[in-house]
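**Polypeptide and fold**
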Amino acid sequence: MSRIIPDLSKLEPLDGNNYKRWSQKLLIFFEQLEIDYVLFKDPPKTAIPTNVETTPPVTAVVKSNEEEIKKFEKDNKTARCHLLNHMTNTLFDLFMVHKSAKVIWKSLESKYGSDDAGKKNYVVGKWLELLCKMVSL
């Protein structure tokens, strides 16, 4: 079954003032690709057999774990690339050193999540509305 993937070519790059909309659009995109988990979960740990004699079930668990690690690394790389490619050059330069999409996502959320331009515009609009009422009195 094919899925319709949104076109991100028209997504405005993150500049710090458009975080809320930018993050929601990218999160929807990551959910459709089924890679959004890398933004919230830690990478799987490598399974180390505790017994010197490896039994077939342990080998199967290690192999399964290796596949899980490879999938996580691939999905992390995809998410990281999309995050970085949809930022302004200034932000790109700051965040390109991070290899984890989760670290980038959390850093952006802590820096811009509570201070959104939409909130600023609302507050400024209300302030101007109040000033106009005061002047007209």
About this structure: The radius of gyration is 22 Å. DSSP finds five helices and no strands in the chain. The chain has a mean pLDDT of 85. Residues 39 and 102 are 4 Å apart (CA to CA).
